[in-house]
Amino acid sequence: MVPAKAVVILGDVLTVSTVNVNGLRAAAKKGFVEWLAATDADVVCMQETRAEYEQLPEAARAPQGWHTLLAPSSDKGRSGVAIYSRTEPEATRIGFGSEEFDDSGRYAEAELDGLVVGSLYLPSGEAGTPKQDEKERFMDEFLPYLHRLRDRARQQGKEVLVCGDWNIAHQEIDLKNWKNNRKSAGFLPEERSWLSRVFDEAEYVDVVRRLFPEGPGPYSWWSYRGKAFDNDSGWRIDYHVATERLAEHASETRVERAPSYDKRWSDHAPVTVSFDWPKP
């Protein structure tokens, strides 16, 4: 677990977690249900759920005390995102107005009191293949949507937080073995440049990096192959991306890394951020 950055917190505290569950049915059998029951999060964003609503056990489909929004992929058994919130959303949205991607289980959104929360599962890609072309098409459509989302939220007096598996390590400090991954999907120059545009042109903030500007990491994904987890040879690809006013109120963050390899219920770890911000 990455030590939290402690600050003096004034007033309410809003806590949000994001995690790629690597299959919600499998995760529910290996510890996710227990983690959800114990978390202090007010909102949990999930990616790669890979399940239809009726396929999930009750404890994951409709856990007590949570309102659930699931957006499965039309390609059954793949992708899928979800948002669980302790308060009922004022409105929900699946997709972002894309003919190609709205039924692919890549994006869902919940409007809460004063806040719009999105759960994003950006395609992973594979350099030099059609999978990378798909990823680039998604990015080309999603960046303009982030601009529109920011503008709409401003008009409504709301802030935006897009959490999820962005599948891009932005800087060298965001992955352990960056020298050997310069030609790998997730660390390609054009992908990193696109993410810079999210922060510079669209005016969003990488909340965890603001709290931990030096790095390395904190990593949130470790391959199941080899000794990546044991050696902490990870990637930071799970982000909390917020509008400036909300980001200014980020007070602490933690990566909820499993204590050992055999205790993992996903190849990702939950990334949790607390904000000095009124709860919905």
Automatic annotation (TrEMBL):
- Give the GO molecular function terms: double-stranded DNA 3'-5' DNA exonuclease activity; metal ion binding
Q: Required cofactors, per record? A: Mg(2+); Mn(2+)
Return any one Pfam family short name.
Exo_endo_phos
What are the site positions for Important for catalytic activity? D238
Could you list this entry's UniProt keywords, alphabetically sorted.
Hydrolase, Magnesium, Manganese, Metal-binding
Co-factor note (free text):
Probably binds two magnesium or manganese ions per subunit.
Which residues are tagged with the site Transition state stabilizer?
N167
Residues the record lists as binding Mg(2+): N20, E48, D165, N167, D267, H268
Q: Where is the Endonuclease/exonuclease/phosphatase domain?
A: 18-268
Catalytic center residues = Y121, D165, H268
Q: Where is this site: Interaction with DNA substrate?
A: H268
Q: What does the entry give for GO biological process?
A: DNA repair
State the NCBIfam families in the record: exoDNase_III, xth
The similarity comment for this entry is: Belongs to the DNA repair enzymes AP/ExoA family.
Protein name, UniProt field: Exodeoxyribonuclease-3
Organism of this sequence: Actinopolyspora xinjiangensis
